[in-house]
Amino acid sequence: MNDLLMIRKNLFRRRLRAILMIVSILIAFAIYGVLASFERAFNAGQERATPDRLVVLNKINMSQPLPISYYSRVGAVDGVAQLSPISWLGGYYREPKNFISAFAVYPEDWMRLRDSDFVFSQDARTAFARERTGALVGARMMEKWGWKVGDRIPISSSIYAQKSGARAWDFTIVGSFTSRIPQADTNIMLVGYDYFNETRSFGKDLINWLMLRTTSAAMNERVGNAIDGMFANSPYETTTDSEKAFQKSFAAQLGNVALIVELVVGAAFVTILMIVGNTMVMSVRERTREIGVLKTLGFPGGRILRMVLGESILLALIGGLPGLGVAMLLITQVRGSLMNFVPTLTLYPDIAVGAIGLMLLLGIITGLLPALGAMRLRIVTALGRN
Amino acid sequence: MSSASDPMIGIVDLRKTFTKGKETITIFDGLNLAIPKADFVAVMGPSGSGKTTLLNLLGGIDRCDAGIIEIAGIRIDRLSEGQLAHWRASHVGFIFQFYNLMQMLTAAQNVELPLLLTRLGGKARRERVEAALAVVGLSDRLKHYPKEMSGGQQQRVAIARAIVSDPELLLCDEPTGDLDRRTADEILSILQLLNRDFGKTIVMVTHDPAAAQYARRALHLDKGHFIEKELAA
Ligand SMILES: Nc1ncnc2c1ncn2[C@@H]1O[C@H](COP(=O)(O)OP(=O)(O)OP(=O)(O)O)[C@@H](O)[C@H]1O
Ligand SMILES: [Mg+2]
User: Fold this and answer.
1) Interface predicted TM-score of the whole assembly (ipTM), two decimals
2) What is the pLDDT of residues B170-192, one digit of tens each?
3) Cα–Cα dist A144/A373, whole Å
4) What CATH class has B36-64+78-230?
5) What is the full DSSP assignment across B2-30?
6) Which residue in A297, A299, B109, B128 could disulfide with B105, CB within 3.0 to 4.6 Å?
């Protein structure tokens, strides 16, 4: 026998009570694991945002267009190093349910802008810059649809049609790319803006936004003000924002996930804390006499404190670790179907480590009061009147 | 080697009070007592005369207000709480009226408890536990839980627990108070055996004159003082 065996036996002294507490802790940590992973995935865009990149949008809102002529006017602003127009295709492959994240860009400009996020081979670089009807497809999208370089793939748009009346554009995959950093998602497709612009039935010479890099992050504010000032009182007024703020407003459209996560997790944990804390107090009080006997036998107060704390920590771990397992299982289950919306949904190791830290904290907080009480308990009081 | 006439317990000018609110009750004031090694003393006296309090003081689980308590040459009234816990683990065994076993531990595990405070390894502990349970005649009950045993059996487990770390002093507070005559006699015979064959010094509180007959002598505690009565050996 050792202390751990005693701790375990004490924990399961009342089986049903222990199981109920374990289940409630399990549920709390399953919720925590899932929500924290979702929050991380939604914020991935903000995390990968580069500090010296800015996005120029229509001032009204991000779904209003800007004219392509802004490309050269913005390019001439002092402090702008590189820029590319970006148009959103609203693409799909064969059927509307096969949603494809596709953007029309100026190939060379865009690749230079995204060099810090993606790895482009020299072949892909030259081919995408040269081929008018070429498409550059990220590694994950290639893998998802089983495409190869050289394939001709029909991409339809849920927004535009071709002038010819055809619904789909036939693009030739001219190259692929991989990500340089884990948060950069490669489930995307790029096509040349010129070809797309000339063949579409409406929206000619319009773009959704401009992405640019300044000569240094310190220039951001000055550059942003210069751009927005230049277009003030024009039919297309702009608002220029850091990429981070832009990604954030993108995520905000999906609901304020972070706040919801914090509220739900906070409420769950306060509840668990009160239930488990109260139960630990009761459970130790029921054993007052036995604690008195242990002390009579010569068990020092510190050892009794450790045994009670050990019990509450063990309880938190027995409930919390399988809870994390459940979260992992849930996430792998839904990942496939949510791929397009939250591409980087994973229970990252640091979320798991944080959760284990929370378990230890929960164990210590719920066990501390009864443990201190047990440590300080006077033997004569504990044994009562014989 | 110590001889049987060396003192095991020496109490000099002991003072013990309890304070409840504004009221102070004096239990002992100027109590003296000497008990030699390998003695077996029955302590009798009316309810509330301070018998349990005396045992608590002798066993170092309660503190006196003034005076000297010396056990086997150690001034336990001078020890700190931590030192007292350490001292109890190796020098004194307690036996209570209601056994006070851990309900979720088996007989063997209950007996093993005091050994968790020693450096003994698993095998050595198991041997000691089996030896202690053999002394009280419970070798066939190692894996039984307290609720699966009779009162007499539980008290025998408690005795095994009290002697497993081989203390020189056993303190028993009405060890047969909850048992029928026959079972009580069995328990008292074990205590007598521990005194005669193992040389344990025993102080036993009891209300039962028949139980006191098993001791070498009886002390009557009344109004905070002792009156000694020799018993027929
Ligand atoms: N913790 C305490 N606080 C206040 N008074 C106490 C406390 N413990 C004991 N007493 C008082 O001290 C006196 C002696 O108590 P003690 O338990 O030693 O008596 P006892 O001789 O063992 O009696 P019994 O035969 O009923 O067990 C009693 O009057 C009791 O009320
Ligand atoms: Mg008493």
Assistant:
1) 0.93
2) 999 999 998 999 999 999 999 99
3) 59
4) alpha beta
5) --TTSEEEEEEEEEEEEEETTEEEEEEEE
6) B109
Q: Report d(CA A120, CA A75) in Å as an integer.
A: 24
**Helix residue ranges per DSSP H, A287-348:** 288-297, 301-338
Cα gap B216→B227, rounded to integer Å: 15
CA-nearest residue to B162 within chain A is A297
Residue A115 in contact with residue A124, Cβ under 8 Å?
no
> Which string of DSSP letters, residue by residue, matches chain B?
---TTSEEEEEEEEEEEEEETTEEEEEEEEEEEEEETT-EEEEE--TTSSHHHHHHHHTTSS--SEEEEEETTEEGGG--HHHHHHHHHHHEEEE-TT----TTS-HHHHHHGGGGGS---HHHHHHHHHHHHHHTT-GGGTT--GGGS-HHHHHHHHHHHHHTT--SEEEEESTTTTS-HHHHHHHHHHHHHHHHHH--EEEEE-S-HHHHTTSSEEEEEETTEEEEEE---
| Coil/strand/helix, residue A310 | helix
What is the distance between the alpha carbons of residues A308 and A369, in angstroms, rounded to a whole number?
Answer: 10
Kindly report the pTM of this predicted structure. 0.71
Phi, psi of A51 (to 5 degrees): -65, -30
pLDDT digits (tens, 9 = 90+) for A253-289: 555 666 777 787 888 889 889 999 999 999 999 999 9
A215 vs B47: CA distance, rounded Å: 94
| Nearest listed ligand to the Cα of residue B54 | 1
**A382: closest chain B residue by CA:** B61
Q: Is the dihedral of CA A16, A18, A19, A24 positive or negative?
A: positive
Give dist(CA B183, CA B186) in Å, integer: 5
Identify the residue whose tokens are 């670089």: A125
Question: Exposure of B61 by Cβ count < 10 A (0-12 exposed, 13-18 middle, 19+ buried)?
Answer: buried
What residue's CA is closest to ligand 1, atom 22?
B52
CA distance A3 to chain B (A): 8
CA B225 / ligand 1 centre spacing (Å): 15
Nearest to B114 among A297, A301, A383 (CB): A297
A 10 A CB-CB count for A169 gives 23
Going B72 to B74 to B78 to B80, the CA torsion angle's sign is negative
The residue-averaged pLDDT of A44-53 equals 66
Are A289 and B100 in contact (CB < 8 Å)?
yes
Q: Which residues of A touch B81 (CB under 8 A)?
A: 301
The list of chain B residues with pLDDT below 50 reads 1-2, 4, 232-233
Distance between CA atoms of residues A278 and A286, nearest Å: 12
Atom nearest to B174 CA in ligand 1: 27
Q: How far is CA A28 from the centre of its chain?
A: 20
| Kind and range of the H or E run holding A147 | none
